[in-house]
User: Fold these one by one.
Assistant:
Number 1:
Amino acid sequence: MVKYRDGERMLDALGLPLRRTMVRRLQQEGAMSLSKLAVPFKISLPAALKHIRLLEDSDIIETHKRGRVRICVYKPSAFKELGGWLASQSAFWESSFDRLGTIINKRKR
Amino acid sequence: MADVTLVIKRTFDATPEEVFKAWIDPKQVAQWYGPEGFTNDIHEMDVREGGSYRLTMRVPNGDTHPLRGVFKTVQPPTKLVFTWQWQHGEKWGAETLVAVEFKAVGDKTEMTMTHEGFADEKEKEMHNQGWSSSFNKLEKLLS
């Protein structure tokens, strides 16, 4: 719901396995240029840039230009939002299941 | 990377058939989706694989939260899988995936719900499974 929005925006950005692999590489191998990041995927630079923009817009990574090279950096704080999303879903379902238990018991009586 | 999956297990004093029904019967869903005080208007609940559901959750403070999804697996009384998507203003949020499994344990039912943050990968997996089972059939046919 509304306050989980940022978490959901991240989920959307991470919805594509290719973008998750990009993030994982930045996490594990540190900052790198867009062209180096794009190499394993056999995609064009403009295509890679589109994916990177989405990740940047959802605050998972940041990029800056060094001359003609665009450097991509993973943001360590990024997944806190997702933790928030998980916590909110967990609270949602736990309290829903309390009610489910109640109506199941009522029907039995 | 962060594992964006939520797993909750509950045991209910009812048969798997009864618990399964509580997930697909609009009257019951309206009563239990959401925390205490929430109510739900069910607009559509087309319970078959590929069928959609749409509902509006009403929060005690008066806010409304539209929710929608598509049923992916409907296997009464053991398994139910559907997508889950909230509406925020004009836009729809990320599509996530809810899978519920029901297992009889004595005269009770153990329910396991998995809420997976990425709907796409699961779909791909299911797609792959679809293919592998087709290939298995093909193999049998050919042998």
Number 2:
Amino acid sequence: MVHFIETIIKTISIFTGLSCFCLFTQPAFAKNQVLTDVKVIHASTGPAHIDPRLKGNISELKSVFKYTSYRLIKDQKMKLNFNQKGRVILPGKRTLVVIPSDMNGRRIRYQINIHRNNHPVFQTQVLLKNNCSITIGGPQFKNGTLLFNISGSLQ
Amino acid sequence: MKKQCTKYTLEEISRFIDNELPQDQHAALAKHHVHCPYCNQIVEQYQSITDVYKEHLNRIPLEIDTLKIKEKFGQTLKNSKKKSKGSMFGFFGKYIYLKLASITAIVMIGLYTFQGGFFDPSGPSAIVKSVDTDFASVMIIETQKEKHTIIWFSET
């Protein structure tokens, strides 16, 4: 019995030791790519419709917005290195530029710019929680509004 | 006061007590001090001193078992060494693995807490550091349930 307990304790200590090693050496093997997913959604008050590909994202938006229709116009996934620009062409001569610049704790620092006719109209810097998303909305498009759901995942 | 007697010196009386006088002198002094109060007093005094001394001499001396003492001292020394070893490595003595695991766990939890990732389920999905736009109105919204961050701007 004592031997059994000792074995368990040894196993736990080895496991925690390895975990500790991984934790301390994390900066040495730091992940340096960010999988960035930009979903361009057209939200309107037209006939009720929710794109099946948006089911995971919409419930939160519905709690805030009055829109009844959510259509996915574009879904662009990009593997970006830090400080690498990711461009998404948007409807209405708009362009979305996302740049993961660095990590701040467990969050990814993103620079997000929206250009219209090659002129910056909106710029923001956010600290996005790893594996989470942010929604930016506002631009008018076809009797509705464009929403950009941007998620980041450290690779 | 008793009349001083000069027949015998103090030394002779002392030797009498110690049985060091020749036999005839011893017998003579023995006869004399019975009748001489002065000499008798000195004899009694000397005798009492001698008795005390003899009694002290006859006492059984305190036996010191050096072997036993050595053995005890050795044992104490061993115990103190063990104790000092215990205090030096006390924390890592018994159940060393459990203790090391506990320390590691505490360090890990502390580090994760400082990094803000391990116990940060309630934070917003995104923290907005800055917004720069030509448009007049910008709203930053956080949903109640999943704390999803929304930035809303109006182009009009």
